[in-house]
């Protein structure tokens, strides 16, 4: 019996992506098993599934023969505390990490996995200080669509064809193969943290206060701004007190209820917006439900309909940014360009052709229908 027969089971009604049902589901338990599976599935279209928290993001696949579930590719391979490094299997839920007085500073939805966060390039409030998955990822192990196992960065520095695989696979939506392990840079866990909350104000006042914020978040619905301050207890108290005077705000041990939450309903249209910092006020005043990082210009919006999508996208493009529809009802997905104009599409096509010449992995899910 081959790897395909050994590792797969028939799909159930729950095994679908964007409404497209799969025929088979497989859950390999190691990189070697995953490589054998992918090599055996050489004529099947494939979508990778982690915790499922972002499986509905992006367009549905053109076809779907096999879902590779990473639930058994879970656990910590290594924690080199002295080097501030950890090696994690892709199916590891970020909720399950136990790193003592260190942290992997990625914000993620409950149940989200390491591989899913990297594959979607997801980030949250703390990206202002710690960066995104792309910044924290220093090594990666992947199974390419032909079944080849490739490692890059981390303790084994071996790039393929000159590519930085970590950056290439981050945000690729599973279109270039299967991520099986990730090596991350860690940070010390802060001894104290507080939130300074006030009415929304220009970010320049916060930056000029020189309080080294970890996150600066805004919410158009409540017209509120919240700043996360981390560090030593004494330092946090001092900086929070200074910022509170500057903003005329309150200090709290807890974030506001909207902190890190998506501003759209489960069945609504959700967008990711990126603009220069100077244009953040315009987005907040656009009339849409907008929420996110006023410190980086990466925000999220709930659009009411397609015309709202186009209006927000036009605002972003005019400002030199971009807007992506992350999730939408099937009726909207069918008629809206979810990715919008994205620079470098010709290069992305060449990379897709090189890594996945049969266009089997996540077909149609990525930019330009890749």
Automatic annotation (TrEMBL):
The keyword Cell wall biogenesis/degradation does not apply. Residues 17-189 form the FAD-binding PCMH-type domain. InterPro entries: FAD-bd_PCMH, FAD-bd_PCMH-like_sf, FAD-bd_PCMH_sub2, FAD-linked_Oxase-like_C, Oxid_FAD_bind_N. Transmembrane segments: none annotated. Keywords: FAD, Flavoprotein. The keyword Hydrolase does not apply. This is FAD-binding protein. It comes from Paractinoplanes bogorensis.
């Amino acid at each position: 019996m081959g790897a395909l027969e050994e590792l797969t089971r028939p799909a159930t009604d729950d095994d679908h992506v964007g409404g497209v049902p799969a025929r088979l589901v497989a859950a390999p338990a190691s990189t070697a098993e995953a490589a054998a599976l992918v090599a055996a599935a050489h004529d099947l279209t494939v979508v990778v599934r982690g915790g499922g928290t972002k499986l509905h993001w992006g367009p549905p696949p053109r076809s779907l023969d096999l879902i590779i579930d990473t639930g058994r590719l879970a656990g910590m391979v290594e924690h080199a505390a002295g080097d501030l490094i950890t090696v994690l299997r892709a199916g590891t839920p970020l909720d399950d990490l136990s790193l003592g007085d260190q942290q992997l500073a990625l914000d993620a939805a409950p149940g989200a996995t390491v591989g899913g966060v990297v594959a979607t390039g997801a980030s949250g409030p703390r990206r202002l200080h710690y960066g995104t998955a792309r910044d924290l990822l220093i090594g990666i192990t992947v199974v390419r669509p032909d079944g080849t196992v490739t490692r890059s960065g981390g303790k084994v520095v071996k790039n393929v064809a000159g590519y930085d695989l970590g950056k290439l696979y981050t945000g690729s939506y599973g279109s270039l193969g299967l991520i099986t392990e990730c090596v991350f840079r860690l940070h010390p866990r802060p001894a104290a943290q507080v939130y300074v909350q006030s009415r929304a104000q220009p970010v320049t006042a916060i930056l000029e206060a020189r309080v080294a914020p970890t996150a600066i978040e805004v919410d158009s619905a409540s017209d509120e701004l919240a700043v996360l301050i981390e560090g030593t207890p004494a330092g946090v108290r001092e900086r929070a007190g200074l910022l509170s005077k500057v903003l005329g705000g309150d200090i709290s041990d807890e974030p506001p209820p909207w902190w890190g939450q998506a501003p759209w309903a489960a069945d609504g249209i959700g967008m990711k917006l990126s603009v220069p910092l100077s244009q953040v006020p315009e987005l907040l005043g656009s009339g849409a439900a907008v929420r996110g990082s006023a410190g980086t210009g990466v925000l999220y919006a709930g659009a009411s309909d397609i015309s709202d999508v186009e209006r927000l996208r036009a605002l972003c493009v005019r400002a030199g940014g971009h807007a992506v529809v992350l999730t939408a009802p099937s009726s909207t997905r069918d008629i809206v360009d979810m990715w919008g104009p994205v620079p470098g599409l010709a290069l992305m096509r060449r990379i897709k052709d090189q890594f996945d010449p049969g266009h089997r992995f996540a077909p149609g899910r990525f930019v330009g229908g890749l």
